[in-house]
Amino acid sequence: MSITLPRDARVPLSADDTETAGAGSWLRVTLEFCRRQPFGAFGMLLVLVMAVTGLSADLIAPYSPTANDFEAMTEAPSWAHWLGTDQFGRDMLSRIIFGARTALTVGLTSSFVGGIAGLVLGVASAYFGGRIDNLFQRVCDVMMAFPLIIMALAVVSIFGTGVHNVIVAITIPLIPRCARVVRASALAIREVAYVDAARACGYGHARIILRHMVPNVMAPFLIMLTAFVGQAILAEASLSYLGLGVQEPVPAWGLMLQGGAEEYATTAPWIAVFPGLAIMITVFGFSIFGDALRDALDPKLRNR
Amino acid sequence: MYRYIARRVLLVIPTLLGAAVLVFALMRLIPGDICVVRLGSGGATFNPQAIALCHHEIGLDKPLWLQFWDFVWGFSHFDFGISMWSGKPVAVEIAARLPISLEIALLATIVAVSIAIPLGTISALKQNTWLDVVVRTVAIGGIATPSFWIGIIAILVVLDTTGALFGRPWMPPIDYVPIWKDPIRNLSMAILPAITVGYRYSAVSMRMTRSAMLEVMREDYIRTARAKGLLEHLIVNRHALKNALLPVVTLLGIEFAFLIGGLVVTEQVFNLNGIGRLFVQAVQNQDYTLTQALVMLTVTVFVLCNLAVDLLYAWLDPRIRFA
Description:
Chain A is built from 14 helices and no strands. By secondary structure, chain A is mainly α. Mean pLDDT of chain A is about 80; it is low at about 1-20. In chain B, about 80% of the residues lie in helices and about 0% in strands. Chain B contains 13 helices and no strands. The longest helix of chain B has about 40 residues, at about 230-270.
């Protein structure tokens, strides 16, 4: 997935430029966003539904995701099992609901950790410039020469499978991708007078980077973060589908497609259809939300 | 121009060398002794001689710098060592599976280009109409849908449709026959995976075509072309599309390398014995020599694709050529 970012990131005129007036303005900003970007608001809604589903899985799931009912194996959707059951007699709906938790745990953790590491490294690289920047860029070149899933496979081959290792495997390739984009925006900010002023005040490097530069690259960072969550969820699903990600009995969408999906494709198509739909809807939500966010934050695209 | 080319080609060397260091280091980060992990899996008993022999086979008894030199030197000669699992040379294992993956990658590119460029262009020309919304939804759908799921659904649809039409469900063949020997069998094997991978591939390019076209259509020279009364289709085809396709070419080149990533999963769905499947098997079997070679191969393809794109770009765009 490629990420298109604002080409001319807005350079704030003061360090406080990005701060909003108060708590009430958040609601106003959100409402304005929904009015201007209805497509994006729909994406935001999908993301929210998935988040609530994942968080309250224990409350809303009709059955335990791991409970087998051998009386009802590969049963078609019915009132008792809304989305049917799998080949082990487990309720598909409950597994999908709990799967949302796994997908969001992996997706959010790896994109946040990878994103924040990339943010700090990217801004630091732009701030220090010179040799450090050059060296860091070459390291990024090397890291980015590994397609995400290939890097993830290489990491899994070393650390093994399981939720934690999958998170590590997806986080590592996200770091240079974030750092690269953030650095580009940070380069423009480095030249702004308030950074010089902060330096003249004798502030330390860490303070200038974290307090003065990082808040001002938030726009491209947030856009990228939404794209990352989608990518991470897809990567987790792919790894789990290959049997190299999350392992049974943890409910995960990719894993649900691994075992019976092909084998029972004609006799019990619901096993193959619903988990895939769940992945698609979630990533779709993050994608259109991210797109709308980009359009809303990019002044060049705003009037198109 | 020549300076640009020379600089760009030379940049490939440190990147590949860096990747080699990374791959080499990664494979040595594996906790414990590779040989113990391999020989001791399943609780089997083994003697120290077997470990020593295994170390010798992989070259782990040599100093680290010599191991790295052997790795880089071997790689530059297409000598990737012996597969730890099958005992055959890694190069032989890869060569046997390369044609099928390459064919699917090429077919997928054709599928992607023939979907992406027309749809992306129409979407830009009819901006903010229902057609635009449909195309954009199709494109985001392609990005959001895991390719293995598209594959599973494609198989499902083919099985059901052929079952209903002919009374007997038809499955695409899974063994590779070269296209010059049996083109029908070959294509019926490759077409579904190619569409599966191609749809996802097209989604990204479709979005790029759309945004590039939108930008180009606002340029002054398009207004000039309109002002002199040129027909709209000439403006689109001759003036706009030619310029808008530059970033699309870049993207196609970069995404081609990502196809390999897509193939890893898709080949699994269609049970095809290509590079992607070999990769997964190598990881599952803890075959480190094979994994190492495949990662390095993917990275090399990626880096060379990027190089090709940059050179092509320089050739297509006089602004870069004469800079």
